[in-house]
Queue: 3 jobs
Job 1
Amino acid sequence: MPSPRPLRADARRNREALLEAAREAFLADEDAHVEEIARRAGVAVGTLYRHFDTREALVAEVYRQEVAELCAAPARLLAQHSPDEALRAFLLLLVEHSAVSKGMGEALESIMATDSPVFDDARTEMARALDHLLATGAAAGLIRDGVSGRVVLRGLGGICSMRANGWQEDAIRIATILYDGLRHDAASTAGSRP
């Protein structure tokens, strides 16, 4: 199957405008209609449907974009911080990502009913990003060895999926507790070495 032709510059601008408008609309109003998204992007509804067959396809692409940006962060964080501090910063970004996802809650629920792999793919990518940070920290002797990214994600997942008031503050506290636990074992092990 031949690869799709690259988008013309105006079509690319329209697609980017639609994705940005959709993200803003979903965060501001979970039930944003395609007409509202097209209006915010400054394009006709037909243009929206040329890029995205359904509203669910648009939602999935906005979510994929959010996850891609999140999962690109470890390289930047490791360039700016020690491995343990990069892990701490990424855990806080995961909480922030959950807040964005909550803002898109109803929109995301619309694709949960489909057979879209978007959530499985997202969890896999986030776990892979965490695996990289954990392995880098363990190799430097700053983070406990033997913990997978998937386990850390599960540790944060429960609190981040809650809809109760104050969940984000609690999630930040729990992320800090996880971080302290991951560092504690590495620090005590390092301290006992000759």
Job 2
Amino acid sequence: MTTQDNLWLRKIAEDPGHSRWYIQRFRDMAARGADLAGEARLIDAMVPRGARVLDVGCGTGRVGGHLAAAGHHVVGVDLDPELIAAARADQPGPTWLVGDLSELDLPSAGIPARFDVIVCAGNVMTFVAPSSRQEILRRFRAHLAERGRVAIGFGAGRGYTHDEFLTDAAAAGLTPELLLSTWDLRPFTPGADFLVALLTGAA
């Protein structure tokens, strides 16, 4: 994968201060009391207390940090070392790792693969290299517990249609269980400008 393939790496190449801006943006929002836990509330409702949660494309750790505070066992992975450093500083408790989602292999890092839920928020799937999307979804499937679910959310108009995503998910062995248009449980409708897909690895 080249820098030009991954939108996040491209942004950093064009503006070396982009990650620091992003980190400060969310720190400022938190300081103002903004609600940054909407995605985490949905994930928390999906699993029993003490669940194993994998936060992929975790960024500064806002989702995984909230879930850890709620009593879950959280591992977070992100490509950007600056964002992981911020997650470790701002959200102590979870295990935060630098890693490429297309090469996700947590057992090789000594972390058991089976997670009750994998959350991928923040438009992550629209930032990754298009050629890596199916492989990333396959990696998610490989890290799921037997009855685990994947929750992926991203907006329309970002170069990856919702239909293309669902086709890629099916090719990766993931089956839609519920499609929503928001993280606060509004039903998905044709033409919706956002998708939250809850997927299982069931055949």
Job 3
Amino acid sequence: MSDFPDRLQIVPLPRDVSDVEPDVVLFDAIALHGSDGHELDLLVKESASALLVLAREGRPDLTTLALARGADAWVSLEAPADEMVAAIEAAAASYDDDADPGTGNPPRLTIPADLRETAGLSEREAEMLGYILQDLRNAEIAERCFLSVNSVKTYIRGAYRKLGVNNRAQAVLWCVQHGVTHAHR
């Protein structure tokens, strides 16, 4: 990947993920072998970065597990470097703060930080609620965020659990009751 200095900057992840917000965090799926997955769970919960799993052909079970625990996408370690870079760039694109002038997609939406903290929502869970407030379907959210529909469902279920609601209507009602009547940046 050092062949792409104009497209990537690789930095080590510090011990406290809340101190840095890279666009993309690469997570080697092999780290889940013989592990309780705490490190991955921490990245999913504490980081607003896209989480891209580095998958190994011989261990598709670990890739599936990482995606089930909230990773956003995966790329094979056996992929050519240019494909890996393209996957990283696609994951990073879902975290741009400005609209993509090429597609006209609006910027990522979130619920205000103080309300997020009160509810215990991750930034991604709050983002999903913002899209629910816009009455977007899971497939539309997935397309807009460059996520799988299953990842969108996982984030939404996590938000519902933290809010103590069971469906979209209850989630919208919760937002209205807490003064969130439209999505914020």
